[in-house]
Design a protein that fits this description.
Number of domains: 2
CATH class of the largest domain: Mainly Beta
Pfam family, one: SNase
Strand content: 25-35%
Shape: globular
Organism: Beta vulgaris subsp. vulgaris
GO biological process, one term: mRNA catabolic process
Order of helices and strands: EEEEHEEEHEHEHEEEH
Structural class: alpha+beta
InterPro entries: SNase_OB-fold_sf (IPR035437), Staphylococal_nuclease_OB-fold (IPR016071)
CATH topology of the largest domain: OB fold (Dihydrolipoamide Acetyltransferase, E2P)
Protein name: TNase-like domain-containing protein
Strand order of the largest sheet: 1-2-3-6-5
């Protein structure tokens, strides 16, 4: 497999945004087969991280940064370029561009939702004044200018005072009593949720962004899509099967 510095370009649809700097891309494949997927991490920046474990806490503004990127690119076609593949993890780093928006790394930095990683070497290190500026050096200078403007404007991560909801509080509804209580409190209501994952054609993992964010699995009533095998973890199967059943019956 390829590792180190590479250059792989193409076009793909953004399937999901797990973190502000991470895009799950899906391409086109042969009929009857699952399309190829690629996880691309935007290089050269640092973003606040969304907690992936239930007992962990988001970094400040992680949800705001992720939501900014998700609303901007979800379901849209982007041009991506992989420039580096990590030797051990195989993670792919690079850039992505969206029509009428441009470079997504630059957009994140300009809006204050990402910070620039320190340059490996100073931009003015070359002693030859007539030396040609390298593309990566030029890119760094552009990002540096956009970051300086965001800091000056005190936007995003650079806000003078953190907002009250800078760190979200999350409740994962997996236990039977939690699900029943949530159902009884919201029966008949229309709730504006974020689709975090399409588990199967009729199963959605949703996040309800209230004061305390509620995360749960919804199974569409009256329909059943082809099943995708669930990981062989007793707790996972039990909890999510329970959530599917309850929402199939009541919603």
């Amino acid at each position: 497999p390829l590792r180190g510095n590479v250059k792989i370009s193409g076009y793909a649809i953004v399937k999901s945004v797990p973190q502000a700097d991470t895009l799950v891309l899906v391409g086109s494949g042969p009929a009857g087969k699952a399309p190829p997927e690629k996880v691309l991490i935007l290089s050269g920046i640092v973003v606040p991280r969304i907690a992936r474990r239930k007992d962990a806490v988001d970094e400040p503004y992680a949800f705001h940064a992720k939501e900014f990127m998700r609303k901007l690119v979800i379901g849209k076609r982007v041009k991506f370029t992989v420039t580096y593949i990590h030797g051990e993890s195989g993670r792919e780093y690079g850039t992505a561009e969206l029509e009428n928006v441009g470079d997504l790394t630059e957009k994140l930095v300009a809006e204050g939702w990402a910070k620039l990683k320190p340059a490996k070497e100073p931009a003015n290190k070359s002693k030859d004044k007539d030396a040609k500026v390298k593309p990566e050096q030029e890119k760094y200078e552009i990002l540096s200018a956009k970051e300086a403007a965001a800091i000056e404007a005190k936007i995003g991560l650079h806000a003078a005072k953190p907002v009250a909801n800078a760190v979200r509080t999350v409740e994962h509804l997996t236990a039977a009593d939690q699900i029943k209580e949530f159902f009884n409190a919201n029966r008949g209501k229309k709730l504006n949720c974020i689709v975090e994952q399409v588990r199967e054609g009729s199963s959605l993992r949703l996040e309800l962004p209230e004061k305390t964010h509620k995360v749960f699995v919804l199974h569409l009533a009256g329909v059943q899509a082809p099943r995708i095998p669930v990981p062989k973890s007793g707790v996972y199967i039990c909890k999510h099967w329970l959530a599917w059943c309850l929402f199939t019956v009541f919603v």
